[in-house]
Amino acid sequence: MKILAIETSCDETAVTVLEAHGDLTNASFTVLGNALYSQASKHAEYGGVYPSLAKREHQKNLPALTTLALKEAGLLVEETQTLSPDSLLKIRDEEFKHSIKEFLATIQKPAIDLIAVTNGPGLEPALWTGINFAEAIGAEWNIPTVGIDHMEGHIVSALLERSENTGYKILNTDFPLLALLISGGHTEFVLMKEWFVYELVGKTKDDAVGEAFDKVARLLGLPYPGGPHIQTYAQKHRDTGVADTISLPRPMIQDDTCDFSFSGLKTSVLYKVKENASLSEDDKEAFARAFEDSARDVIVTKTKRALEKTNAQTFTVGGGVSANKEIRRALEELLDEHFPQTQIAFPHHSLTGDNAVMIGVVAYLRHLHNPQLPDSIHAHGSQSLV
After folding, report:
1. Are residues 331 and 355 in the same domain?
2. Where does the chain bind substrate (predicted)?
């Protein structure tokens, strides 16, 4: 099966063409074409993602990136086409409608079996842009289109083992599976009892950990997105061998639940930063380390509690913060010491952020599980997977 996958939940526009084989126990995937454009530099001046700007960038880039992905996959046949009058009915933005019309008018229907598009959670204007585009090209080409949950993509991304430069295969997975989802918008534990049967184990009461990384980076005068910069500065401080002298709280660490809170930690950094007239580079490194250490300790303690409560046989970590080296190290150490029987899996570095590969993979696995498609796709900006 060949799948065209589209991801526009936030500030990455991603389009992938996958070829998928096998069943739920041995599925394998080859990336035939992959195109991604990050808008991070455009949102940096706002210190976060500006929804209307994200929408406009998605509208501008989707036709071009789809062309690139299809070309890389060897599925692009350019030829003047006569369009169906109904394929663009749902598109309300006239400029977007015109760009899709131009795209469809010059490209012959590719040999694609299924179109998959992220339908949430995320920024609704961004999500609807991807959905409208996917449904328009699906209607014109008479290819079935399915909506895929973004967080489900992050869960599955950790189960993808690199088999070759452009290929992945599903890990042999024992259930129940506990997934820790840590990103700019989410921090939660989700238990997958069997394929696509979920239970929410714990979640943040306020800020997501990735959001806290970004906000603390802004307090320290570091660029957006903040996570990579906090990691770099924190490691520089560790490398000096100097002890951590900044005391920050570990919110809810003694609480007997698997829930999180990061708002108070961010506020504590704010107050301590205000005590300094100015921050030197050494100060920034010390604050970055203190914050990262606190976030790490909370995540590790809550993970230990969640694993004890669920008796999970597989533990996966997904989302943008799963790329953090210190958090990865600490979680691996936790499982080695306390849960050696539990398999731990992280996504390949290229799959930690938002990407269309994971959306296509979930679409294929969902198709194997239940090939019946819903009648329509709706964006759900904040609805949880569970």
Report:
1. no
2. 181-185, 214, 227, 324
Give me Rg for the CA atoms of the chain.
22
Residue 183 annotated in ligand binding: yes
334 is in an annotated binding site: no
150 in a known ligand binding site: yes
Query: Do 296 and 214 reside in the same domain of the chain?
Result: yes
Which residues does 329 contact at the CB level (< 8 Å), separation at least 6? Answer: none
Does residue 186 have a known ligand-binding role?
no
The answer to whether residue 124 scores a pLDDT higher than 70 is: yes
Q: Per residue in 190-248, pLDDT tens?
A: 999 999 999 999 999 999 999 999 999 999 999 989 999 999 999 999 999 988 889 99
d(CA 200, CA 189): 6
Q: Would you tell me how many other CB atoms lie within 10 Å of the CB of residue 38? A: 15
Task: Please indicate if the annotation marks 354 as binding a ligand.
Answer: yes
Q: Consult the annotation and say whether 353 binds a ligand.
A: no
Does the residue 381 lie in any domain? no
Q: Residue 181 annotated as binding?
A: yes
135 shares its domain with 34: yes
Pairwise CA distance, residues 227 & 352, whole Å: 12
How far apart CA 231 and CA 328 sit, in angstroms, is 12
Euclidean distance between CA atoms 186 and 11, whole angstroms: 15
- pLDDT reported for residue 46: 64
Structural domain span for residue 131: 2-158+351-369
What are the backbone dihedrals phi and psi of residue 148, each rounded to the nearest 5 degrees, phi first? Answer: -125, 140
Residue 324 is assigned to a ligand binding site:
yes
- Domain identity same for 139 and 214: no
CA angle 143, 148, 150 (to 5 degrees): 145
The per-residue pLDDT for 45 is: 67
Whether 25 and 96 map to the same domain: the answer is: yes
Query: Is 206 part of any known ligand binding site?
Result: no
Residue 164 lies in a domain: no
- The reply, when asked if residue 360 is annotated as ligand binding, is no
Q: Is 154 annotated as a binding residue?
A: yes
